[in-house]
Amino acid sequence: MKNMLLAATALTLSMTMAQAETLRWARSGDALTLDPHAQNEGPTLALMHQMMEPLVLRNPAGELEGALATDWSVSSDNPDVWNFTLREGVKFHDGADFTAEDVVFSLERALSENSDMKGLISSVASVEAVSDYEVRITTKGPNPLLPAALPNILIIDKDWAEANDTVHVQDVEGGDETYASRNVNGTGAYKLVSREADVKTEMTAFDGYWGKDTYPIGYSDIVYTPIQNPSTRMAALFSGEVDFIQDVPVQDLQRIEQDPGLKIVSSPQNRVIFFGLNTSDELVNGTPEGGNPMADKAVREAMNMAINRDAIKQVVMRGQSIPAGVIMPPFVNGWSEELNSMPATDVAAAKAKLSEAGWGDGFTVQLDCPNDRYVNDEAICQAVVGMMAQIGVTVNLNAQPKAQHFPLISGVESDFYMLGWGVPSYDSEYIFNFLYHTKGELYGTWNGTHYSNEKLDEMTKAIAAEVDLEKRDAMIDEMWAMAKADAVYLPIHHQVLNWAMKTSVGAAVDADDQVKLKYFSVE
Amino acid sequence: MLAYIIRRVAQSVLVLLVTGFVAFSMFSFVGDPVENMLGQERTQADVDRLRDQLGLDRPFAVQYWKFLEQAVQGNFGLSYRQGRPVSEILAERLPATLELAAVSGLLALLGGIGFGIFTAIRRRGAAANVIMTVSLIGVSLPTFLIGILLIYVFSVELGWLPSFGRGDVVNLGGWSTGFLTQSGLKALVLPAITLGLYQMTLIMRLVRTEMLEVLRMDYIRFSRARGLRERAINFRHALKNTLVPVITITGLQLGSIIAFAIITETVFQWPGVGLLFINAIQFVDIPVMAAYLMMISVMFVAINLIVDLLYFAIDPRLRIDGKAGGH
Amino acid sequence: MQDRPTETLPPSEPSRLARAWDSDLAWSFRHTPVAMVSAAVVVILVLSAVFAPLIAPHDPFDPGSLNLMNGFTPPGRPNAFTQDMFLLGTDDQGRDVLSTILYGMRISLFVGFSAVLLALVIGVILGLLAGYLGGWVEALIMRVADIQLTFPAILVAMLIFGVAKGITPPAYRDQMAIWVLILAIGLSDWVQFARVVRGATLVEKRRDYVQAARLIGRKPFSIMLRHILPNVLNPVLVIATISLALAIIAEATLSFLGVGAPPTKPSLGTLIRIGQGFMFSGEWWILLFPALTLLALALSINLLGDWLRDALNPRLR
């Protein structure tokens, strides 16, 4: 009897032990806010995803999965209408029931003027609750890709927001901060315990979570800390002060692998790195005599041939990249092996091509590059400076922080720039819309090349509304053929995502670098 | 005396206004805050709207005036990055920096005086020479490298001390302190050494030189002749005369400790105002940058003013010309 | 050398060189091994920096000559792909570390010397003016010095860097960084020169010989230049030496904050900033060699400064 009691106590103890696992998680930056609609930014969304949920989620495999919605489809009688069936029996962290009015409220909040998420769902015209567990979304014209736009639109409780006067997304100049920027009432697997911005955020597993039995949820408590300096972050992992880190410098992978207590989980990332070229008649930073050389397609092709993608992969990236021939991540709709083909590096041929184009003596151009945004961004640019020098193109490198780099692209004030692009919708339309369409108010906002192709512009708008998916795919193929032939972008590679952790952490890596801890288990 | 103080305070305020103006005029060059505040799906209309909301289109003189107007009322606006009142963020972060600065200042003062006295008394000794040379290593490598090397040795290889953060802190009426927990104290060690090393070398040299000079003065020689014990001479007489300039310099250096904390805090992920400032620069968080610079300026000007007034009170000669002396 | 005791003067009129050799300073130098070793290290390092184009095996500033595949070659061993050998190995761009250090030291020293020169010129002129003229000139200069002190050096550099970036034409940005560093470090350093010179000037001004020069109608400018300036040179020399080491370190520190020499034309500081990223990865040579060079340089200059401070302090003799 006594033994049994002891065994029972031991069993309970070990059970609670197993449940009381804390995951100490670090990455380079902190979330900016907890208001789900105030910042459309990677680390911010990553933190919020632990505590709040969207209707439709992108799981670690990259597939769409029902979160707060169980079913969704286009209405049979109107292609502009989508119907969503909601999950029943879901509770918010404060115990309130999740219903359709919360969805309507959250989507409308995400569409409001001060929301940073409204660009993702700009096609939505209205949202209505049909019943407690049915929602109808009407779009401005047919939108076959609406569900793919929803994974980052998180749902919060309407009554809670109203009670705490946080119905509106904060307007920065509006004086006071909003309640939602520091408090959370979502339906997520974890609820907020405490948060000190830029220092530490603690979360604990939510007892009333609807998916308690569906997902592993291996950790009962989460401590999230930003550690900015890469060496310090690595030191924290090596010394055992944290269990799991993102943003691992590629040069440190080897040492992590050699450490018996640590491991790496990797996946190709949803981010392609490339260079944009000014194709207009004049250069921003001084046009050489004879006009802008890069206005000539042959010159752009020669530059493309001069880039040694394999050397960048092997040396700068330590093998942690996938050389790219097109500015589209591999799992995006429209990608093909053939499109991804790239010219072999051939300095002699590139030089010959330049002479043929009348630039045999080379020319000088400035390369604008960020130094705190992508994996080894500055080192890649430096390598490209050397490669261009080999074909006689003198490149002045201007590497600077992202706050100064990106305005050059959106302001069309660069001749030669580095940019990285992730495709949250996993569809080509997103790339054409932002990067190839003629620069304007609504389209081409990140096209810093002056490139303008009327046919491509028309088709970009057409595929956004095309519901016949087969026809649509054919159009996308045609567009890529055109875009690639014009060589306004020089693709470099796709980043490979690496997460480092203790061997006991069973992490589920996803291509968007978006940690979803409910898929994590203890091994 | 009163007239002098009034004049001096007025000058200080002017200094503050000028520094604020200069700093503010520079913000337009650090980048565009709007780029960071909006996601990549934003349209031109969003950019224009936000710019207008923030008043970024207005000339900087107008922006500065608005900032001053609010600052006088204790309102530094909302941080672009965190969306919270800047004054609240500063109040939250300041204890971390002040505790770090105080500990490293103390370390520098005690270490500097101790080693300074030792090297002065044993001027020609081998140990003194070794100390003099070794202490110079601390100022012959950049701070960030020293910090990283300390982390490498004491956190990664030996596993004795934490590599980042403040450990557990206790909140005492709005002031978060790391002094009361073991992890908090352990977390202080490496950053405080990194930050204090430079000041320690400086103070040590100052103490040594002053001591050497004082030890040669007549009254010391005289007491020695009178047969006073060596230790009494060193400590009771020589040291006393050395301390005044040392404390003045340490006071003046306090500000530069806080400025250098920017680097130490970045390396050790120490959640103080220096790290806040670096993040603000990266994000072009103008309200935070402005408030930080104003805060640093106020601190410096105040220290300067106090030192000047102390001199005025101590040194009668200055009272005759009615001018503030140098320090 | 006003305070030099007369009995040490040699009886006859020897050559200038011999006189310099016999001076107190030289005597102290010859009897301080640390000073001699430090001086030798500084001379060797400065010379190898000056003659870097002749000594360095490669030109690391010529991007066309680099082969990326040479990257991360360990010191003294052939590269796995290209079979090329490098004495101190190569960095992440395939640059020869030895050459990069020599060229980088050139930049570090250039920045250091120029910044100190700038600080010295500004500080000495303003200090003399403030000390000699007094009145509102002094009040103004010392208030400006207060403003300057209000902004810590790193902040000054960061702000100047930001502005310079905004106003220099893009084509010149490469060189701009160097000049901005000089300006920023020089500007934040002049105050201590000015304070010391002003203090010394106040003392000298009251001396009889200055009063006499004044009485016979010498112009203030000529009095400052010919009588006062030579007498304040000793402390200025000490400060200048220590400032040189500080300026070189300041440049390195600033590079950590992204306010430094560009990676395509790196200084020692930029090399260390880049190298610290490879601390855990096993490519120790990328960090170690530049760091050791910087340490040797700054430490030697600092030791020279220490020795000078003692040797030139009249009250310690």
Structure description:
The complex is a heterotrimer of chains A (523), B (327) and C (317). Chain A has 523 residues and is an alpha+beta fold. Chain A folds into 2 domains: 19-224 and 504-522, Periplasmic binding protein-like II (D-Maltodextrin-Binding Protein, domain 2), CATH 3.40.190; 269-496, Dipeptide-binding Protein, Domain 3 (Dipeptide-binding Protein, domain 3, Roll). Chain A has helices at residues 2-19, 42-51, 100-111, 146-149, 158-163, 230-238, 253-258, 297-306, 309-316, 347-356, 377-390, 402-410, 428-436, 454-465, 469-486, and strands at residues 22-27, 53-54, 56-58, 64-66, 69-74, 81-86, 124-131, 134-139, 154-155, 190-196, 200-205, 221-226, 244-245, 262-277, 321-323, 364-370, 394-400, 416-421, 489-502, 505-506, 521-522. In chain A, the strands form 6 sheets. In chain A, strands 1, 10, 11, 12, 13, 14, 15, 18 and 19 form a 9-stranded mixed β-sheet that branches. Residues 318-327 of chain B have low confidence and may be disordered. A two-stranded antiparallel ribbon of chain B has the order 1-2. Chain B starts with a helix and ends in a 6-residue tail after the last helix. The longest helix of chain B is centred in the C-terminal third of the chain and has 39 residues, at 230-268. Chain B has 2 domains: 1-81 and 283-327, no CATH class; 94-274, MetI-like (MetI-like fold). Chain B has 327 residues and is mainly α. In chain B, strand 1 (170-172) and strand 2 (175-177) form a beta hairpin. Chain C has 317 residues and is mainly alpha-helical. The radius of gyration of chain C is 23 Å and the shape is globular. Chain C has one domain (36-316): MetI-like (MetI-like fold), CATH 1.10.3720.10. In chain C, 50% of the residues are buried. Chains in contact: A-B, A-C, B-C. Chains A and B meet through helix 6 and helix 12 of A and helix 2, helix 3, helix 7, helix 10 and helix 11 of B.
